[in-house]
Amino acid sequence: MMPGPQNREIPPTRYNVWSALRYVSPSCDHRAWFRILAAIKDALGEDGRDIADEWSQEGDSYDKVAFRDAWKSAKPGGKVTIATLWRMALDGGWKPDSETQPETEAERQERERQRKARAEQAAKQQAEAAQRAATKAAALWKASAPATTDQPYLARKLPGITPPDTLRETTAEQAASILGYTPKSDEESLAGRVLVAPVKIDGKLSTVELIDGQGRKTAIAGGPKAGGFWAAQTLPEGDGGGLTLAIGEGVATVLSCREAVSWPVFAALSASNLPTIARTLRARFPAARLVIVGDIGGGLEYARQAAAAVGAALAVPVFADEEVMDWVRGHSKPPTDFNDLHQVAGLDAVARQLRRAVEGEPRPVPPIPVAIPAPLPESRPKVVDLTGENEARLTLEARIAATDDFEILAYQIGPEVIKSGLRESTKARLLKIIAKKSGISVKAQPFQTGIINNPIQFINTPTASREPC
């Protein structure tokens, strides 16, 4: 029974779903947003798609492709039910229409029957899709050749390093022939020579990750990745005693770590998968020392969760100011992972930082960035342009790892501060985190300098009513 103003169960009608969504911000963090989509789909099935899409379009970071993919991946009959939406809406001040008629027992039973039928159908379709994906993955792996050092992605990310036997390569054309469709990433087709990384769950091939020379990545449609990982080597024997195992997000990141310190490495292939893979490997190797290799950015919180869940060390790359500047000049974005550190500072730097994390030595504080005090000084820091407008896109998330928590960050060089620009897709989420942790409402306002493109000025304002997220 869902408690509410009338202390009665709320019927999951289209009207009630629409009404409840008025009290939940579509600009909430991605996890909460996805849970709401799953709640709607669990209650209404495909009949709820238009309501979910209309609500999502009101968010700061709405993307029709992201919505399409999220809605497709939401499965009815899971742990998330309509109660999730009711709870969030009620917390936000929603009061269900007092004239809404409660369900009769017959209506409730019919609703549950339909819900169960949708869940069973979804589970059946998911199992069939997973089997097709596994079959295609095996065929693609068999048809592929051993990866070589001149494969474009490897040559760019790991120059001169011999790829392990657990990587193969094919062409985008051959992959399309086997898969029956053109593999794409964010609506862009993969092209040229494509890296093939097998993903296994419980020791069985479930899908493969495909990576082309431009770094476009995708997996086989219908093949589960959650709970699966790519291993650079065969799994060690025994309980892991005397071993140090590293778990990171991407293939290139963990290969840089392997090359630097010769540890067995595993790629979770997404930040959200890190905690699950950490638990899997802890259960498989209870005596091993685990190191979670985190990327700077929104996925860092998952790395922290993974480390905490299994008692692992957490290693996050630290970049010197000149390294950041050099990287931005060449890539128009800040460095974020250990492969970036490998490329900008060398394998010795990677090895030092990994060993420091394992040995528990305090991490040195980088000369930049520094946190902007809260509340901000009344006088605005001088904003300058060093290398062009891309300088403003040394984003907040790129330096989150330099602090113990999410903070408002900027780059300080002498007396001058370059304030970070926030991508629209991350602005609302980070602002809410900042507001929640500091107990204030944080507002972003654009200001004009004539130099920097889309800078953001952060201003402390009196605490506002909490926006549910």
TrEMBL record:
Domain named Toprim: residues: 245-346
Chain segments carrying region Disordered: 93-131
Biased composition range(s): Low complexity: 122-131
Superkingdom of this protein's organism: Bacteria
GO MF term list: hydrolase activity, acting on acid anhydrides
Biased composition (Basic and acidic residues): 105-121
A Pfam family annotated for this UniProt entry: Toprim_3
Domain Primase C-terminal, chain residue ranges per copy: 19-89
Protein name according to UniProt: Uncharacterized domain associated with phage/plasmid primase
Organism for this UniProt entry: Methylomagnum ishizawai
